[in-house]
Every structure is written in structure tokens, then in C-alpha cells.
Design brief:
The chain has 367 residues and is of the alpha+beta class. It has 3 domains: 108 residues, no CATH class; 66 residues, 2-Layer Sandwich (Dna Ligase, domain 1); 139 residues, ATP-grasp fold, B domain (D-amino Acid Aminotransferase, Chain A, domain 1, 2-Layer Sandwich). Helices cover 34% and strands 21% of the residues. Strands 9, 10, 11, 12, 13 and 14 form a 6-stranded antiparallel β-sheet that branches. Strands 2-1-3-4 form a 4-stranded parallel β-sheet, with helices on both faces. Strands 5-8-6-7 form a 4-stranded antiparallel β-sheet, covered by helices on one side. Helix 4 packs antiparallel against helix 5. The longest helix has 18 residues.
Length: 367
């Protein structure tokens, strides 16, 4: 059996990096951002796991030329594609194009459909659909909506967080993203549009707890919610908003990176809340017709009300990331997770290794 691992983030020297026995990011150029480096780590680890199943693996970078990727896939002639495309031309909202290409070529592939990736690739559209379905997500304002506000509405105080509509992995989010009024949110949006381009919006900031809930499709094609993880803000710097910004997720030299820790331990008093979060995850799965592996991020306000931040249809699958740690708490090894993500028609009857490892609290808050 042959698998094509199609991925984003290719760089010069990456073939030499892949040929080594250890995952050593020092070998990768500094120009590769930490979130894109993570894609390359996933590629190396998943390739090793597939090879361990006697599957021949060919890695194909998703370059700026879709035609070149199509040509490479036709030459490769894989039985299936393991999809690790997380950005195309630096734009996360375009990742559905990879899945659309596989569908056009009639290739089975891992993960969510092109349609689901397209819908969830834009946070504004995602939030609009969540609201239409009666699912809780915080109020938000797009840049165009600010023009319809009255002066009184613009000057209303209240905390907002400014986010990119299309970029993920906390790209563009910092402590300064949380502002104290509608007018400040508008100025922040205009600043980010000028500095980074793309579309930005303001979401009502939810003060409270943060949860990451992973969901994995089982052998029968049914979603299974994995043990809930709470992001605990321990010894967090005073005066900063308690959020998972880019530094908290990726910058190991920052204080906030080490002050955001993952916990799977909950008191009995949290069980009703966890059941509610689980039910929302199942509703999200069915609403957007999801498959493979996903993650739903929540904030829970000071009154105990959950709010869906976003649904990630393409979560990080590296061994120290949140999804794999949650799987380990469910008794699933990395090998077993990858086995479930292979398109079902190619899954053999071989047993999957189960392990209770990968239980580190910090390892990485990458999700």
C-alpha cells in the first residue's frame, strides 16, 4: 500500500532534515515560522508511523502551483493521501483547495472534506453558522459593521479581542489584541489590516476558563470525544489578559508560554460542565459534517456558561500537541490515532497499539 503525505511549509534543506533519525528543528531555517515548523514535525512523525505499518510513503509539498501538485500525485499514484496542508501561499483559508484537488483526482484522503475545510476556514462564517444553529458563540463585529454603529455604540466600554478571520495557530494575536471599547477595537482592526493584510474582526472577550476538546472518528465513522483539556493560567504575568496568544503557543522563551499549562484533572463539580462541552462538540461535528480529527475550543465565563471560540478542522497531530495528549488520556497511542485517520477502506484488521503515555501537562500547548 502506498500513501502520499501532502504538506505545507516546505523549505530548502527539508529533505536532509527528513532523512535524519531525530526531530531536530535546529536544522530548519530560521525563516520558517514556529507554526509552519510544526507541520514539518508532524510530517516526519506520521511518515515514520505509516512506514511502521508497512505502508510506502512519498512526501509531496503543496507548492504555489496546484498543477505541479496534481502532476506529482498522478506520478505517485498513491492508494490514499494523508493531508497535512495547513496553509497555501501563506493563507490558511485556502487549505480546502488541497482536499478539493484530491476529490477531483478521485483520491481517498484523511481528515475533513473540502466543503468543511472551506466553511471552517473563515471564523466569521463559522460563527454565523453556529449562531444560526443555536450554538453559543460570542458576539462579534466585522470591519464593515462598524460603519453602521452610532457614536454612542462606538464609545461603549467593554472588552473585545481582535482576531484574523482566516489565520489560525494564534497568528497575529498578542496581549494587545484585547481592548477595552468598541472604538479601540475598530482602531486595532484597522492597524492589523494595515500591518498584516487580510480581514480582521472583533469578538466579545469572554473572561473565564479555556478548554480544548478533541474529537476523533472511530472505526465505524462515528465521532468520539476525547478527554477534555483545560488551559490553566498558572503564575501568569500580572496585568495581561489570560489568552493563548502566539507567544503562549509558540515562543518557548516567553513567560506566557510556561504560564499556560494543560490539565486533564477535574473535580466532581465540573462533571456537568464537561458533559455540556461534550454535547456541544457532537453538535458541531454533525452541523459541519466533519470527519477524521477535529478540535473545538471553548471559553467558559464566570457564570459557567460555555462559548465556542472556534472549530479547528485540521488540528496539530505532532506527538506533544494537545490532540495526541488527549488521545493518550483515552488510552490511544499516536499509532492508534494515525490508524483511525487512514481512510477506512484501507484499514487492515491489524490491532492498534494502545498506550497511556504522553501525559505531560506542558509538553506543548500547541493545538
Amino acid at each position: 500500500m502506498k500513501a502520499a503525505l501532502v504538506y505545507s511549509g516546505y523549505c530548502e534543506g527539508f529533505d536532509d532534515y527528513c532523512s535524519g533519525n531525530s526531530v531536530d528543528l535546529v536544522k530548519l531555517p530560521d525563516s520558517i515560522s514556529a507554526d509552519n515548523q510544526d507541520t514539518l514535525v508532524q510530517l516526519k512523525e506520521i511518515a515514520a508511523l505509516l512506514k511502521g505499518k508497512n505502508i510506502t510513503v512519498e512526501s509531496i509539498p503543496f507548492s504555489e502551483s496546484v498543477a505541479a501538485v496534481e502532476q506529482a500525485l498522478r506520478k505517485c499514484k498513491p492508494d490514499f493521501v494523508f493531508n497535512l496542508v495547513e496553509t497555501i501561499r501563506g493563507n490558511d483559508s485556502l487549505i480546502y483547495l488541497a482536499a478539493a484537488l484530491y476529490e477531483y483526482l478521485g483520491l481517498a484522503y484523511s481528515g475533513c472534506s473540502a466543503q468543511a475545510l472551506a466553511i471552517l476556514g473563515e471564523k466569521i462564517r463559522q460563527k454565523e453558522l453556529l449562531k444560526l444553529a443555536g450554538l453559543p458563540t460570542a458576539d462579534f463585529l466585522t470591519h464593515s459593521e462598524f460603519s453602521s454603529l452610532s457614536n454612542a455604540e462606538v464609545n461603549v466600554n467593554g472588552r473585545w479581542i481582535v482576531k484574523s478571520n482566516t489565520e489560525h495557530a494564534s497568528v497575529g494575536i498578542s496581549a494587545d489584541s484585547v481592548v477595552d471599547s468598541v472604538s479601540m477595537a475598530l482602531r486595532k482592526i484597522e492597524h492589523m489590516k494595515s500591518e498584516r493584510g487580510g480581514e480582521w474582526f472583533a469578538e466579545k472577550y469572554v473572561e473565564g476558563r479555556e478548554f480544548n476538546i478533541s474529537v476523533l472518528e472511530n472505526e465505524r465513522g462515528e465521532p468520539v470525544v476525547l478527554p477534555a483539556a483545560e488551559v490553566v493560567f498558572k503564575n501568569f504575568p500580572t496585568g495581561l489578559p489570560k489568552i493563548i496568544d502566539y507567544a503562549a503557543k509558540w515562543d518557548e522563551a516567553s513567560d506566557v508560554y510556561h504560564a499556560t499549562q494543560r490539565s486533564f484533572d477535574f473535580p466532581a463539580s465540573d462533571q456537568a460542565l464537561l458533559k455540556k462541552l461534550e454535547a456541544f462538540c457532537y453538535r458541531c461535528w454533525h452541523l459541519f459534517h466533519l470527519s477524521g480529527a477535529i478540535r473545538v475550543d471553548f471559553r467558559v465565563d464566570t457564570d459557567g456558561n460555555p462559548w465556542i471560540l472556534e472549530i479547528n478542522a485540521n488540528p496539530c497531530l505532532s506527538s506533544d500537541a494537545g490532540f495526541m495528549v488527549a488521545a493518550a488520556h483515552a488510552g490511544l497511542s499516536s499509532d492508534a490515532v494515525i490508524q483511525r485517520l487512514i481512510p477506512r477502506q484501507f484499514i487492515s484488521n491489524q490491532s492498534c497499539n494502545r498506550s497511556s503515555g504522553l501525559s505531560s501537562n506542558r509538553s506543548s500547548i500547541r493545538v
